[in-house]
Amino acid sequence: MCVSQWSTLCSSVVLLCLLCSSASSQSERTGFIGDEVLLPCVYSEKLSEPVSAFWRDKDDKVVLDIIDSREDKIDPKFKGRVVSFPDQYKTGNLSILIKDLRADDAGPYDCNIPKVDYHTKITLNVTEKPAVKITTPHPEPPTTRGAAVTTSKHHLSLLSAPLFVLFSSLK
Ligand SMILES: *[C@@H]1O[C@H](CO)[C@@H](O)[C@H](O)[C@H]1NC(C)=O
Ligand SMILES: *[C@@H]1O[C@H](CO)[C@@H](O)[C@H](O)[C@H]1NC(C)=O
């Protein structure tokens, strides 16, 4: 009795782990707040026109509906911030560009091309833009790194001379 409960628990854990690992192997994109990011949705073959594709976000909001090769519905959340590339539809490229990224844009996105039964999921990670330091309080690190690179290059050229001599003498 107890054992069977444990094995049920165990198999659920295994199943969960499998789900986890498959989720983490899906494609991810990282964008910065206020920046733009390309979410790819590319079918491997050419598509006969007209093309339709449906982009949804984590809340099942309409990120973009492409119907009969035209941009159709867009949820107010994404209005004016999402563009697609009509000249590329027939090549199978139904990627979109989300502009002016917001923190709440983060999450999974679905692209569906029903005609060819193609589905893809991209998880968008939105982070703060790395701070660009204007005044560097400690300018030493980059300088020393630069010096280290120079030194190692220098060492390489110092090494190459004896090597050249060695190779020449081997001939
Ligand atoms: C799809 O189109 C976009 C916009 O032109 C482009 O940036 C991207 O590289 C294209 N992807 C492929 C696989 O062609
Ligand atoms: C988003 O990216 C940052 C920086 O690469 C990383 O630290 C963080 O764990 C990522 N978050 C998710 C949910 O993937």
Automatic annotation (TrEMBL):
Q: Which residues form the signal peptide?
A: 1-25
Record protein name field: Ig-like domain-containing protein
Cite the Pfam families for this sequence.
V-set (PF07686)
Is-annotated flag, keyword Transmembrane? yes
**Can you tell which superkingdom this protein's organism belongs to?**
Eukaryota
Q: Which residues form the Ig-like domain?
A: 34-127
Q: Which UniProt keywords apply?
A: Cell membrane, Disulfide bond, Glycoprotein, Immunoglobulin domain, Membrane, Receptor, Signal, Transmembrane, Transmembrane helix
Record's PROSITE patterns?
Answer: IG_LIKE
Membrane topology reported for the UniProt record: Single-pass type I membrane protein
* Species, as recorded: Oreochromis aureus (Israeli tilapia)
As for subcellular location, the record says: Cell membrane
Point out the gene that encodes the protein: RAC1
This protein's GO CC annotations = external side of plasma membrane
InterPro entries documented for this protein: Ig-like_dom, Ig-like_dom_sf, Ig-like_fold, Ig_sub, Ig_V-set, T-cell_Activation_Regulation
Keyword Lipid biosynthesis belongs to the record = no
One biological process term from GO is: cellular response to lipopolysaccharide
